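Progress narrative, work stream C.
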Amino acid sequence: LEKLVKSNVIFYKIAFEIKEKILGSLFHEEDLDGIKYLKVDKTTHTCIDIGANVGQTIEYLKTRFKKVYAFEPNIQNYNYLKKKYKRNNKIAVFNYALGEKKEKKNLFIPYWKNFICLHNTASFFKDECYSTLKEFLNIDRSSLSFKKTIVNVEKLDKFNFNNVSLIKIDAEGSEKSILIGMKKYLKSSNLSLLIENS
């Protein structure tokens, strides 16, 4: 079934929509399972999800932390998350990209043959979008086009979140600049990082 879904963009898009709308939090990325080995007090500890996408990680984190602060620069995904969690005061969603300084940058959102938005990824780097999609989808570079949107970038150090014990970063090639912009948080001896490295 997985091979069939990955063989065709249309099959993949349908499967992705079914998973999100019907199955919801049933699935998460396997690397999150390591979080269960951290000493987390879910009555006091909070976490930060950088690159929240459509909430796959939020669904896992919301039962293990008192509060989840989620950052998602793609406005389509952000609007989806705001609607999804509007009644959940444990989740705060911010429409920013994070980096090493305050600025505006072009975010590239990939489309297949100019009509199917592959919204599970977006990046400041077109090549990063392609390599990410190629990991799980049989797709040719020539079939991709990109829509460009301008997003606001902030340093994580601008935000004063308390009792942060975990920061997850999945930022499609921007990991280093995010780390440079969060020096205040990196000084904490109680902080764990989960980074999907590009």
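Work stream C, second folded protein:
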Amino acid sequence: MSREGAAVDQRRRILEATADLVAEQGFQATTIEMIVRRAKVGYATFYKSFDDKEAAFLALLDEAVEQLTGRVEEAYEREREWPDKVAAGLGAMFEVIAANPNVARACLAEATTAGPEAAKRQEAAMKQFAPLLKPGRELNPRRDQLPDTLEDTLMGGVMWVVNQRLIGGEADKLRGLLPETLEFVLRPYVGEEKAAAEAGALTGAS
């Protein structure tokens, strides 16, 4: 392996170790000593990439958000009808989280304990999904009555469900929650009956 390739691999191991330890023990209880031991690198290697534990966590958070938003947007754009776009986006989100439960738990549950910058970045990440939901407003005849905070509230509800599964060690069950989550998200835009129909169609297709 080239020197550059080795550096990339070491950085990856550091971030994986950070995710695993923070998910297992929390950000505050995780130390740099634990990270370098789990990653099987030296202190010098750690400090070549990161100034401190917080910097490593912020890098983990940024990479996780980039991967998640990329996959969600890609799935969303493949569909034509807006309800199908939302279903595809939520499905992609659940798949990414289920495939990386420790990363998700670290970034969702522990960002608020990792300092103001981490909390700020996590909040900004959640707001990236609002533009994907806003086109649904055009489907509601009473769109003018919808609250400005609707999209943020809906995503907060989705993330609460995700977090509960992560805390319970049930990330693999997220896919089964997709129909009811879709219905929850669609209801303010298309009404209860159509939202239920869309969720039912999703259940029938699975």
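The chain has a mean pLDDT of 93. No further action is required on this item.
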